[in-house]
Amino acid sequence: MDQTQQRLFLIGCLVLFCGRVGAARHLASRDLLLIEYPVGNAPLNRTIFVSEEEASRNARIPLSDLPHVGTEFSPDQIHVTPWSETSVLVSWATGEGRVGNAPKAYDPSMVPSIVRYGTSKYFLDTIVYGDDKATRMDVKKSVCAKTVYSYEYNILSGAIDGEPSVYQSPILHHVVVDGLNPGQTYYYKVGSLSYGWSDTLELKMPKNQYPISVGVWADTSMTYNTTQLRDALIDYGPDMILVAGDFCYADKFLGNGTAKKGAYKKEADQFTSYQPYWDSYGRFLQPLFSKIPVLAVSGNHELESLTLRNNLTNLSFNSRFPMPRDVDIVNVAANKAPLYWDQSLFPGQTAFVPPEVSNSVVTNNTYFSVDIGPLHIVGLNTYVPYGNGSEMYKWFVKDMTSLDRETTHWIIVMFHAPYYSTFVEHYKEVQLMQKYFEPLFFEYQVDFVFHGHAHGYDRSPPVFNFKPNSCGPVYATVGGGGVDLDIEYVDILRPDNPKPAKFCSNISYWDPAVYQPNYEPEPFLNTETPFCFETQAPWSTFRAQGYAFGMLDIVNATHAEWKINWLQDSGTMAYADRVVFAKNPQNGCNDKIIMGVDPAPNSDAKPIPLNAP
Question: Helix (H, G, I), strand (E, B), or coil: what is residue 318?
Fold first, then answer.
C-alpha cells in the first residue's frame, strides 16, 4: 500500500471510528478533544532525548554545492506562494548575487518577468506578463513586483581587502497568476525568450475541499538533515507548506562570509549577514517550493538589521518572500525597526520606545491571512509591534471578526517564537505578546498555533493560560527543521547532565530578546502563570529532540489528524507523535480533555484502533 492509499485508508478510518461528519456549528459550541494512539514503531514515551553529539552532528551544505547554473540571467530560486483560492504568486531570481567592495547593482527593467503555464506540460498556452511593457493581445498583465537590494556592512562586520563589504542581489521577480482551479495540476516555466527559460515545472493548486493536507516546518537552515526533510516533504506531497520562520541563517556569518566567533558572535547576531546564503537557499529548496506552495513568516534570523541604513530589517526576506496581506499589492519593502524595537544597541535610541510610538507603525510583509476552502491561515510576527493598540493587533481582530465559522471550519495561526514550550532556549521569551494575543486566540477559537524558534518539538493539548482547556488552541513548536538542536528542558535533568536547568534554579536568568518590541520600561515577566516544574508541565503533552516536520491532515469539518514526521538515525522517517483532534459540537466548550479514551458520554467519537495504518 503506497502513501496515497494509506492516507485514503486513514481518512476512511477517521470517518468510521472518530465520530460523526457534519458541518461546523456556531463559534460558541466547539469542544476540541484529543485522541492519541501509537503507530508502528513510533516511540511511545512523551519525552525523547538525543545526545549532545547527535544534536551537533549537522553539517551545513557548502555554498559551492549550490551554484547558479546556466547563463547569467537564467532563472533560478523558483518558489510559489498561495495568494488566494484561485491564484498564486510565482517568484524567481535572474542574475547572480555578488559580494565585494563595490559590486554594481542590476537594472531590474532589463529582464522581463514572464510566466507561461497550462494543464499539459507540452502545451503552456497561457502567458502572464509581470511588466508594464506587455503589448501583445494574447498575454495577461498581472499584479507584480520586481526588485533588487543591497546590503552594506561596516568594516567590523566583515571586511574584504581592508574595505567594508557590499552585497548586491540578483533581480527578484514576483508575478501573480490568477484564474486557477483549486486542486488542478498545472505546468509552468518562468523567464523570457531573450534571457532563457527555466525547466518546465509542476505545481498542484491547493484543494479547497476536504481532505486538505498542510505541512509545517521551521528553523530549517541548509544542512544534510534539512535535505532529508525536504525530500520527505516532496514525497508526502501536502497541499501547502507553512514555514514558521528562520530560513537559511545567513546572519550566522559576517558580511565577507566568515563565521562569527567568540563574544562578537552573540553581539552581532541579527546585525550582520552573508547574503549569498539566501541565493543558495533558494536553489536548495526550489525542488520543494516550486512544486508545493509555501506560506512563511519572518523569524529572528530574517531580521538582519542594517546598521549603516538606520537599522532597516527584513530587507532580504521581504524582497524574496512577499506574503498576501493585500492580494492587489506585492509588498517587498523593508521595515524600520528603530521605530519599535526596545534596543539600546541602536545609536541615539533610548532603552524604551513608548507604545504610542511603536503602535502607530505600519510594518511591511509581516502579517497576513489567506483562505483555502474551509481553512483560514494567519501569519503573525513576533518582532513587530503587537500591543492591543498596534496595527497588527487591530488587523487581527478585524480579520477574525470577518469570518463566517459556518463555512470557515478551521483557523490556523503561525508565528516564530513560541508561547508554549519547555525548552530552555527562548522559554517564555514572548510572554508579553502572549499576554495580548492569547485571549484573542481563545475568544475567536483558533484551532492550531504553529511556531519554531526552539530547535525541537513540543506539543500542547488544547490549552489556555497554561491550563488544558478544550476551548483553547493546540500549540506545536516544530523547530527541528534542520538547524542544530536544543537539548535542554526547563524541568527535567538530562541523564548525561546533572546540573539543574537554569530556569528552575534562578529565574533571573530570564531575559527577553533585544530584538523584539516592548511595551513596558522593564522586561515583562508574568508571575501569575507557572514558571518552572519538577516534571513535564501539564501543557506539554509530547516533546522530542530531533529533526522533524509536522503534517496536519484536515479530514472534514470536525476531525483533523496531526503527526510529527521524525528523521531517524537510519535516515528513514517515522511518526514520533500522532493524534486525532475531534471537534465535539454537542458538548460545547466544557473544559474537559479526554486522552486516549472515549471522549465524552454524549459523543460517538472513539479512539483510532491500534492497527490503523
Answer: helix
Judge residue 107's burial from the number of C-beta atoms within 10 Å of its C-beta, 0-12 exposed, 13-18 middle, 19 or more buried: exposed
Q: Is 370 helix (H, G, I), strand (E, B) or coil?
A: strand
- Decide: 89 and 175 in contact? Cβ < 8 Å: yes
Span 504-532, pLDDT tens digits: 655 555 556 666 776 766 666 666 777 66
Cα gap 148→73, rounded to integer Å: 14
Find the helix or strand (DSSP H, E) in which 552 lies: strand 548-554
Nearest in space to 373 (alpha carbons), one of 402, 399, 408? 408
- Per-residue pLDDT, 587: 57
Q: What is the DSSP letter of 512?
A: -
Residue indicated by cell numbers 506545536: 476
pLDDT tens profile 44-102 = 335 666 666 555 557 889 999 999 999 999 999 999 999 999 999 999 999 999 999 88
Segment of 5-9, 67-71, 570-574, 594-598 carrying the highest mean pLDDT: 67-71
In a 13 Å sphere around the CA of 224, the CA atoms on its Cβ side amount to 8
| Phi, then psi, of 241 in degrees rounded to 5 | -125, 135
Q: Strand 47-48's sheet: what is its strand order?
A: 47-48, 542-544, 457-459, 474-478, 448-451, 410-414, 375-379, 368-372
Q: Which amino acid is at 550?
A: G
Q: How many C-beta atoms lie closer than 10 Å to residue 344's C-beta?
A: 11
CA 555 – CA 471 distance, rounded (Å): 20
Query: What are the DSSP E strand ranges found in 75-160?
Result: 76-84, 87-94, 98-100, 114-118, 126-129, 139-141, 144-147, 150-152
| CB-based contact 534:491 (threshold 8 Å) | yes
Residue carrying the nine cell digits 525541537: 456
Instruction: List CB contacts of 594: < 8 A, sequence separation 6 or more.
Output: 33, 34, 600
